[in-house]
Design a protein that fits this description.
about 725 residues; alpha/beta; D-amino Acid Aminotransferase, Chain A, domain 1; Dna Ligase, domain 1; Rossmann fold; 5 domains; 8-stranded antiparallel sheet; 7-stranded mixed sheet; 24 helices; 30 strands; about 20% strand; flat
Length: about 725
């Protein structure tokens, strides 16, 4: 039996065994993993190992019965499935049971090289603690129900490695209530001891950190927790072959500002005889005010659509900040090669690359290699480019707007157009937006990193279909508590078809990774474009109120009836409980209001076309004088302004203006317009403008409001958390 607990990765590999049918990965025997756990300060059962069944009785002489017997060896990754585990044994049974076990293992295709005998741990709450690699996101830490309940994968939570204390405490708090209460024992588990074990294993400088990039999967299942103990009753460690892993992409760190504020733009691929992508971009630039500094690249034309043309990039005086390539995929590399020493950035709008199959993938690699040799940074291929009001960068006609604080990174060009145009109608104002397409060079991670340093950007939105670069996690980690991020993520799936060697791996699908990113770093992940735009609008309106000054708390005010029930249910579904009114608040409001106004939360107040326009504004003011709320959501039923009035929404606009005057308080304010379809088209625009004028976000339903409030409150928590750990 090995005695050392301070084992290096070389030691672990020496003890590891191949995994049948799995090239490049090896499994470290359980008893060796437990030595590592013990060395990290995690309690493990009293035990011993031997290769001979006849020695089991003597090595277990001092152990307290009942005992556990396990076999180890090649092909024994899933011991229970191969009959290589027995519980509740006496010393006198060990030798005979070991011989039977060895025969079962051989029959199942494995080989018992030796045996582990341990004291059986008394009953407690059985948990699973796992750490699994999910490139390019890094390591994911999972905590959930273990033992026979492991298959309840939805009852687990995850965070990105490494854990800080707040992460570990949240993981424990998110366990099912029955587990926290002690389940069958009835004795509440020792939460604090469990937190300490999580930190010893997966915290900063913990056990897992010493295994570096070779760690593929680690699992303790079960981790038995009682009222005063946390014991690792099992341990599994799988290492990967790092020699076959490609090197991480080098972060180039080049200033990306010429993308957004170029002095010279060249468009290659515009036609003199038909309207092409190149012509469309020339039209967009001309509409944005470009006269000087804009060129078309064409072998014979002197001008295209009123824009001067040159035959070669070298003919453009002073070089090119931004080359837009709309030439066919087969000609793209040659164009880039001609721009060596001339072009700083190139956007490849053309498709037909990696997304088009094997031939396209070859062309894509050629573009990446050519650009690197030429010293040109590339957006795309297969992307629409850049939008920046200040730099007159655009790919959209008729999109003039004042600049704002919102930056966007999108892997889709067409969806980026929707983000801009629909976002503008919701009051979102953009600093910089980039579409990245296939991202052969400039990646979502690098772009996000750069936006964090951009003085014009204080809020970031994203559309992502899959992350391939290592920079992304570093960027999200750097944004925590500094810049709010809302990510619309497409293509999420269970990933259940991926071959995994542990329950932890099965629990670590793409959706779970993004949930962990959200919990670990405070980004908001949404699944609908409307929720992305609503959240960006709300966060942008209230950037000065995102600081955690008021604890997360939500007040809902509006006409009574079923809407209050629906609001409560919706907010609860998004993890935003409606905060109860305090007795002091109810008593204070009772002195101001008679029947018809409910002082519970949601607060119900008679409001419509015949009610005083300042009624809700006064109620908010009187409420916030007594009880603080971080977020106040007002909801109105627009159809009542048509059903009971001939004046349309005129009085509703006055009501909005009155609500907007509630500004001395720290609360964020939002307005839900229910039955918005009842509004006339012209009135819908009037309501949006009224809200925009007073700094209110207009929501179309409770779902938009709930996801937006959740985003703001999530960032509040991580703003405070960042301040705490930066002071550690």
């Amino acid at each position: 039996m090995m005695q050392r607990a301070d084992m290096s990765i070389v030691d672990l590999r020496r003890e590891a065994r191949p995994i049948g049918g799995d090239i490049g990965r090896v499994s470290v025997p359980e008893h060796v993993v437990k030595l590592c756990l013990h060395g990290a300060g995690v309690e493990t059962p009293q035990g011993a190992t031997t290769q001979s069944p006849n020695e089991l009785h003597s090595v277990a002489e001092s152990f307290t019965e009942p005992l556990v017997l396990k076999a180890f060896g090649a092909g024994l990754l899933h011991k229970s499935d191969m009959g290589a585990v027995e519980l509740g044994l006496r010393r006198t049974e060990l030798t005979a049971r070991a011989l039977e076990m060895a025969a079962r293992v051989e029959a199942a295709g494995g080989h018992a090289e030796g045996f582990v005998v341990e004291e059986q741990i008394p009953a407690g709450v059985e948990l699973l603690l796992g750490v699994v690699r999910r490139d390019p996101y890094g390591l994911l830490v999972v905590l959930g129900l273990g033992g026979t309940l492991t298959e309840l994968a939805t009852r687990s939570s995850a965070r990105i490695f490494p854990l800080r204390r707040a992460d570990a405490e949240e993981l424990v708090a998110e366990l099912p209530a029955a587990a926290l209460a002690g389940a069958r024992t009835g004795v509440p588990i020792d939460r604090r001891a469990l937190v300490e074990v999580l930190l010893k294993v997966a915290g900063i400088g913990g056990l897992v950190s010493g295994w570096g990039t070779e760690l593929d999967e680690f699992e303790c299942n079960p981790l038995i927790v009682t009222g005063d103990r946390v014991v690792a009753a099992d341990g599994r460690l799988i290492l990967r072959d790092v020699t076959s892993i490609p090197e991480s992409r080098t972060y180039l760190g080049r200033d990306l500002s010429p993308l957004y504020s170029p002095e010279t733009i060249a468009v290659a691929g515009a036609s003199t005889s038909k309207y092409s992508f190149g012509n469309r971009f020339l039209a967009s630039y001309r509409a944005a005010g470009w006269t000087d500094g804009l060129y078309a690249v064409h072998p014979t034309a002197e001008s295209i659509d009123g824009v001067p043309a040159v035959a070669d990039l070298v003919d453009i005086p002073g070089g090119v900040d931004y080359l837009l390539s709309a030439v066919p995929a087969e000609r793209t590399s040659a164009l880039l090669r001609s721009g060596a020493g001339i072009v700083k950035f190139a956007q490849v709008v053309t498709g037909g690359f990696g997304e088009a199959g094997e031939r396209g993938a070859v062309l894509e690699r050629e573009v990446a290699d050519t650009a690197a040799s030429a010293g040109i940074r590339v957006l795309g291929p297969n992307c629409m480019g850049v939008y920046s009001p200040v730099g007159r960068q655009t790919f959209i006609l008729n999109s003039e707007s004042e600049p704002g604080p919102t930056g966007v990174v999108s892997q889709s060009g067409s969806l980026a157009s929707e983000i801009v145009l629909s976002g503008l109608s919701r009051g979102v104002r953009f600093s910089k937006l980039a579409t990245l397409g296939n991202a052969v060079d400039v990646t979502p991670g690098e772009m996000t990193r750069w936006l964090l340093t951009d003085q014009d950007t204080r809020l970031i939105g994203m559309y992502l279909e899959g992350v391939r670069d290592d920079d992304f996690i570093d960027a999200v980690r750097a944004a925590q508590g500094r810049v709010p991020i809302v990510a619309l993520v497409g293509g999420l799936s269970d990933q259940g078809s991926v071959a995994v060697a542990s329950h932890t791996g099965a629990m670590a699908g793409e959706t779970r990774v993004w949930q962990a990113l959200s919990s670990s770093y405070g980004i908001t992940v949404v699944s609908r474009l409307e929720h992305l735009l609503a959240s960006l609008s709300y966060l942008q309106c209230h950037l000065s109120r995102i600081d955690g000054a008021v604890p997360p708390s939500t007040l809902v005010i509006g006409p009574g009836g079923g809407a209050s029930v629906l609001a409560t249910d919706t907010f609860d579904a998004y993890g935003v409980p409606v905060t109860p009114s305090t007795p002091e608040l109810r008593a204070s409001l009772a002195a101001h209001y008679g029947t018809g106004t409910s002082t519970a939360n949601p607060m119900e107040i008679p409001v419509g076309p015949g009610s005083p326009v300042d009624a809700i504004g006064e109620l908010i003011g009187n409420t916030l004088e007594v009880q603080q709320f971080s977020d106040v959501i007002v909801h109105l039923n627009v159809q009542s302004w048509y059903a009971f009035s001939n004046d349309g929404v005129a009085s509703m606009v006055e009501l909005i203006e009155a609500v907007g005057r509630i500004r001395p308080y720290r609360a964020r304010l939002g307005l839900v317009i229910r039955s918005a379809d009842a509004a006339r088209n012209s009135d819908s625009g009037v309501l949006r403008e009224a809200c925009s004028a007073v700094g209110l976000t207009l929501f179309r339903d409770f779902d938009e409001a709930a996801v937006s409030v959740a985003a703001a409150q999530r960032f509040d928590r991580h703003f405070l958390r960042r301040n705490e750990w930066e002071g550690e």
